[in-house]
Amino acid sequence: MNGRSGSTTATGPVCSAPGRVTVRRVVTTRAGGVSQPPYDSFNLGDHVGDDPAAVAANRRRLAEGIGLPPASLVWMEQIHSRNVSVVDGPVAEAVPATDAMVTATPGLALVVLTADCVPVLLADDEAGVVAAVHAGRVGARIGIVGEVLRTMIGLGARPERIGALLGPAASGERYEVPAVMQQDVEAHLPGSACTTVANTPGLDIREGIRRQLLAAGVGAVAVDPRCTIADPTLFSHRRGAPTGRLASVIWMEGLRVGPGFADAVTLTSH
């Protein structure tokens, strides 16, 4: 990435074999953009009060950094629902009122924005189906992940072939909630209840989602352990609002490739 681009970390493509696409996953940080405080600096959310021109510039930098045309990136109007949209080509505006997107179209990059909620990136590289999910406390509680899996299966994916990445999010150590809320979420998302570092009721939404995916038969689940609340290189609404949004992106490259693993890449600004 050149010196004008924002900072992103590619968590690496999945294993590629004959008849499979190469899947790329990228998670951004808050460094390397043009937004001014409190959105400094690589804010990619256009709904948080930032200068629209700065957000547009940052989005262009993201596209440039991952080597795709800006029109190939698909954004969502996230509303903490369990709505899932299937997209098969570029769209001019954010997909309305949805919290997950699924595609079988190579070269189409699905983007989820977060600042404490869990970004979930899913792929069956044999079927050629990928998904991006915004799974906060509300969406995870009401079943957004299960809805996405059903949609992927409808497009030919199989749970045992799906690989999942749970991106940076509020950790259970830092996500303090009232005891009643903790009990309610645990009843719908088992494994999410925990105790914070302050010895108070907490929620580990990533752990609840991880268990949910494994219980659904998903073949592999990777967890990015970074806590948005604790890590100042990431945006966190709970640490300080208003603030910007990170992007987690997943896409399939257009060509099918032979056996082997492609190298993971770290893209940074200079």
The helix/strand series, from N terminus to C terminus, equals EEHEEEEEEHHEHEEHEEE
Number of strand elements: 14
Remind me, CATH topology? Answer: CNF1/YfiH-like putative cysteine hydrolases
The level 1 CATH classification is Alpha Beta
* Residues in helices, as a percent range: 10-25%
Report the CATH superfamily.
CNF1/YfiH-like putative cysteine hydrolases
Give the overall form: globular
Q: What is the architecture at the second tier of CATH?
A: 4-Layer Sandwich
**End-to-end C-alpha gap:** 8 Å
- The domain count comes to 1
Describe the strand arrangement of the main beta sheet, using strand numbers: 3-6-13-2-1-14
Spans of at least 5 consecutive residues whose pLDDT stays below 50 are: 1-18, 255-270
- Look at the helices and sheets and give the structural class: alpha+beta
Gyration radius (Cα, Å) is: 17 Å
Q: Please summarize the sheet with the most strands.
A: 6 strands, mixed
Please name the defining characteristics of this protein.
single chain; 270 residues; alpha+beta; CNF1/YfiH-like putative cysteine hydrolases; six-stranded mixed sheet; 5 helices; globular; disordered N terminus
Write the topology of this structure.
Blueprint: E1 8-10, E2 20-28, H1 52-66, E3 73-74, E4 84-86, E5 100-103, E6 109-114, E7 118-124, E8 129-135, H2 137-142, H3 144-154, E9 163-166, H4 179-188, E10 193-195, E11 201-203, H5 205-215, E12 220-223, E13 246-257, E14 266-267
Parallel strand pairs: 3-6, 4-5, 9-12
Antiparallel strand pairs: 1-2, 1-14, 2-13, 5-8, 6-13, 7-8, 7-9, 10-11
